[in-house]
Structure formats: C-alpha cells, structure tokens
Specification:
232 residues; alpha/beta; 9 helices; 17% strand; globular; binds 2'-deoxycytidine-5'-monophosphate
Length: 232
C-alpha cells in the first residue's frame, strides 16, 4: 500500500504524542517526536552554559554549537517506542523533566534553530510512512501531508494527565498547580511566538480529546487514516 505522511499537531500535554505513537505502531509507520528534538537542544543548552542567568538563550553561542549537536531516535525494544539520543547518550528521561519543560519554549522560538530542525525532520521523512507530532508539522514541516490532525483538550484536563504521568514515574514533588501554570505558559508562548506559532492548518481535522480515552482516540485516528488511504 502506498505510504503517506501524517502530521499531528496540538497544544502541550494534549495526548498527541500518545496518539501519534500508538497510530504509528498500529499501521507500521515510523514515529517522530519533534518536541523531543527541541527538548534535547534545551538540555544541551543547560549543560553547556548557553542559558543566561535571566533564562534567556545565548543565541550566538547556540549558533556556534549547533553543528556539534547530534539528535537521533533509536527504538527501545523494551517499550517498543523510540528513545531520544543526544550526541550518543540516551536522554529520554532527562528531557521529560520539569527543568527542561520550563526552558524549552524560548529555545523552540529561535528562528535559525527551527529552520535546522525542520530541515532534519523533512530529511527523516523523505520516504514517507512517518507519523510526526509537534506544533508546526501540518503548517511548516509537512504542508502537503495527506492527513493532518490537530489535537486539543482543556488546560485542567491536560495538567491532571501530566501530573498522573509524573507520579507514575516517581515524581512526588511537582504540584498540580505548577504543571497547570507551565501548560498555560507554554500554550501562550507557543501560540504567540513570531516563528511558526502553533496554529491549526486549514486542512487539519480537529480532535478534542477532553472526554475520550486513549483507546477511543486511537480508534478515531485509525479511522481517519483508512478514510484518507481509501480516498487516494
Ligand atoms: O510536544 P512537547 O511538549 O514535548 O514540545 C516541547 C516544546 O517544544 C513545546 O513547548 C513547543 C516546542 N515545539 C515546537 O515549537 N515545535 C514542534 N514541532 C514541537 C515542539
């Protein structure tokens, strides 16, 4: 069967990654988490003094360092999902913590960095058969994607899901209020930044998953995939 590229965009912690991963697994596609790339760059900035004391980014230093930053994804046979590697080191756990979450928005707003990430993301998807999730996939990375999905849910529901996830991972310190505030801050930042702000592509289909579970959202995505393939 001819392969397509699938763009999944949406607000932070909306469950779009879960849906994109599950869908890719179900239909035998490669899953690419573009947010993990911005998170890995953020971690690199933290480790290499590229973040100023006032939390702004030293952009000229980042530009100098950019050619030395190698981000790859490798399938983790235990989870069946790809882990993120930064210069050869598995950073999957570190990039999901609160520290990276709090600094990733300003990093992901840098124009020259976005250009480079988009170039790499397009290169990874040349052969099609990719499900990629992020903020600008349907608008910038795959403007011609055959299927574009835009996922949303209320900030409170997203904060509750995120806190449950952190607790499962053993984080007992981060509070619900802290997570909710971070989600609202990132929504605002992602939607109002100058470079590729988060917006729904005109031809994307919206899914508000506030009141459906993971299985139901996967079934919805599978149906959308088969509808698209049938029309081709
Ligand atoms: O999807 P996520 O929460 O892991 O993404 C982390 C941050 O990266 C988020 O604040 C927005 C940014 N991002 C982006 O600007 N463009 C993308 N394609 C993916 C993520």
């Amino acid at each position: 069967m001819e392969k397509i590229n699938i763009a999944v965009d949406g607000v932070s912690s909306s469950g779009k990654s879960t849906m994109a991963k599950d869908l890719a697994k179900e239909i035998g596609y490669i899953y690419i988490d573009s947010g993990a790339m911005y998170r890995a760059i953020t971690l690199y900035c933290m480790q290499n003094n590229i973040i100023n004391p006032d939390k702004t980014i030293n952009e000229s230093k980042l530009k100098e360092h950019l050619p030395n930053i190698d981000i790859r994804f490798k399938l983790n046979p235990e989870t069946g999902r790809p882990d993120t590697y930064l210069n050869g080191k598995n950073v999957e756990k570190e990039i999901r913590g609160m520290e990276v979450s709090q600094l990733v928005s300003p990093v992901s707003a840098i124009g020259f960095l976005r250009k480079e990430m988009v170039k790499q993301q397009q290169k990874m998807s040349l052969n099609k058969g990719v499900v990629m999730d992020g903020r600008d996939i349907g608008t910038v990375v795959f403007p011609d994607a055959e299927l574009k999905i835009f996922v949303s849910a209320s900030p409170e529901i997203r904060a509750k899901r995120r806190i449950d996830e952190l607790r499962m991972k053993g984080d007992t310190k981060t509070s619900y209020e802290e997570v909710l505030e971070n989600i609202k801050y990132r929504d605002h930042h992602d939607q109002n930044r100058k470079e590729s702000p988060l917006r729904k592509a005109d031809d994307a289909i919206t899914l508000d998953n506030s009141n459906i579970n993971i299985e139901q959202q996967l079934q919805w995505a599978i149906d959308m995939y088969y509808n698209t393939i049938r029309k081709k």
